[in-house]
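URGENT: need a sanity check before tomorrow's submission.

F., can you look over the Protease I record below? I want to be sure the sequence and structure line up before it goes out.
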Amino acid sequence: MAATLQGKRIAFLATDGVEEVEYTKPREAVEKAGARVELVSLEPGEIQAFNHLDQGGRFPVDVTAKEADAGAYDALVLPGGVANPDFLRTDPEAVRFVKSFFDAGKPVGVICHGPWTLVEAGVVRGRRMTSWPSLRTDLTNAGANWVDEEVVTDNGLVSSRKPDDLPAFCAKIVEEFAEGRH
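Structure tokens as predicted:
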């Protein structure tokens, strides 16, 4: 039987520069499983997604990180793209929001360059995880056990490397989010 996310509320934290497919595919997966999704960002309005270095679609923001309450959500997804997590990790409200999920033991999914925000939040030490290869040194220096695998799960944290990993990543976040707190 497929995992269900009926009644679950999932936050996606992203801003301008998010890799479009790393936002849209996981969002489709959790919505298909029954979750209600909200896009949390740095500013109200819309964010500009990218397809590698080409502009992609624009997506409406539901709530800002400053206004968002992690207690209102069951899980968090951090899509990648190079610019997106670089902007997020420099915003204290975004970092606070991310850290709140870990403090509460709530599941988190992160892909590609998304772990930069986790490094800033100080939540990777002792965790086994993966990312885009260029983040290996950052994650290792922050205390993570970095591995080169399609999808890695460590106590509710699901990580993947790149868009090619999305089928495995999407399936695993649905499973972990259905399990709930860890």
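My own read: The chain has one domain: 9-179. The chain has a mean pLDDT of 97. If you see anything odd, call me.
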